[in-house]
Amino acid sequence: MAALFQFENYLLQLKREIELFPDDESLWKIPEGIANSPGNLALHIAGNLQHFIGANLGHTGYVRQREQEFSRQGLSKTMVLEELEKARQCTILVLGGLSSRDQSENYPQDFKGNFLSIGDALSHLLAHLAYHTGQVNYLRRMLYPAV
Q: What is the pTM of this model?
């Protein structure tokens, strides 16, 4: 499944970005005019994928706490990387079990009032992952240009 490769590729890229931050504290810096720290964006991606792919498609039992994705601060890089790895493993497991035919089925939850096929929902989630991965990359280069 092509989507599985893309999800894994972006999650590995995001993990590399987090690893490049010089220390734990650097993950939580927010430049003026920016709403979220790189650490919070990574937690947001981990929670988002574990909810929309893990819980909703894979019935993993994951319970999302979206507010904490943006309010938690000061976690170590190791802890953030562990959350991303959980999301990666969950995504691999669930998407690896989907067939092409499954993708044409209805996604079990609406997206902002719209009902989508599983394939369309995955496209949306992949774009979301790519968007935030790019944000983390940009913030890292802005905050630590020598890294």
A: 0.95
